[in-house]
Amino acid sequence: MNLRDKPLLRDRLAAEYVLGTLKGQARRRFEGYLHGDAVLRRLVADWQDRLVPMAELAPPRQPPRRVWRGIARRLNLEEARPGWQFWRSESLNFWRALGGVSTLAALLLVAVLAGGVFERPQPDFLATLADDKAQPALLLSADSGRGRMTVTFVGEMSLAADRSLQLWAVPRQGSPRSLGILAAQGTTTLDLTGAALGADIAMLAVSLEPRGGSPDPNGPSGPILYKGNWMRVL
Amino acid sequence: MSDPHSPDPAELRTWLLGAARRDAAAFRRLYDATSPRLYGFALRMLGKPELAEEALQDGFVAIWDNAGSYDSTLAAPLTWMTTIVRNKALDLLRHSSHALEIDAGRFDSEVLEATRDAGATPADALAMSRDARKLAWCLSTLEGMQRQVLGLAFFHDFSHSEVAQQLALPLGTVKTWIRRSLERLKTCLAKGELP
Prior knowledge:
The complex is a heterodimer of chains A (234) and B (195).
Chain A: H1 7-19, H2 24-35, H3 38-51, H4 65-74, H5 86-89, H6 92-115, E1 125-130, E2 136-143, E3 148-153, E4 163-171, E5 177-182, E6 187-191, H7 194-197, E7 201-210, E8 224-228, E9 230-232
Antiparallel strand pairs in A: 1-2, 1-9, 2-3, 3-6, 4-5, 4-7, 7-8
Chain B: H1 9-20, H2 24-46, H3 49-66, H4 77-95, H5 104-115, H6 122-127, H7 130-140, H8 144-156, H9 160-167, H10 171-190
Helix pairs in contact in B: 1-2, 2-3, 2-4, 3-4, 5-7, 5-8, 7-10, 8-10, 9-10
């Protein structure tokens, strides 16, 4: 049978092919026509556009986490995580090193306080952000009473003019939240919001971004330079 | 005009092209944005969570494997992905020994629910793309039984004769209804704006 000069039949078969009621031998024959007939493929695509949204009438449901884990395992995606999920694949060494950093942070705080960097600070949270060799680079001090936080570079940091450093709070689940852009030298004062101090914060991180910050609202676009976490200060 | 909770097709397309370049982070975002509705759909088709999970997993493995052949001029990203998940669900359906529980009335209530004032059911209405709301509206203009015939065929992969058996209708009637319903849908969808 020649389908080409039967436009109504072609459209009807395309519709029933997409709906699923074209079955068996007739379905296989139709698929045979599809191979050599771009116009017929277009008709099928048009019917898919019309009928497939029917799928959305079923109420959405969150699939269990094991579904994604199964997909990642089958496709070997374990190593290829989003850049900001670095801690998931990192060894214990980083955390051990961070333990050492925390001790150092307390010493740093004393040093900074003595140096008078903060104006009448009453910080209740403190964090030291370290580079990948666990060398402390930044000191964060949060004063939840005043709703302010200060970020101070410990050493020198050279930054190209077209780049910015962006501070992030990375929650245990969901996307990192931007806390602000940092001045490359000295101290930056930022508003302290709930996004920065929530109980679900797994990590604080600083990423290198294009000037003005990450173009991606859901997380860093550049490499993570420094990371660490809050400690409560009495 | 805006679909605040339904994924932006341009964004989905970007992530799908990312997956084609083997960008696992883009693929993960694609999964996060679309898996609830694709899982809901698979659950609706297969009835059993363990089967729906398998269909979703098989579907996303195929989406990753075939992302390179996705043609954005031929299909919207969600349509393409839904078709893949549907085919995986149908494979499972054919090879499964589970008896499928058919609830023909459910499709009807879903259609009518979807056509209600968006203000009355904000969460569900907003989770739906404009295409789906339009389709729901056009389906609602069909007679109840003619609507159910389409629902049974689409969600359960029924043949003409299986639909006839399920609804206790003559085969000729089912064939005619399907043909007319599809024609009416096409005309209604071509009209453009939502009422």
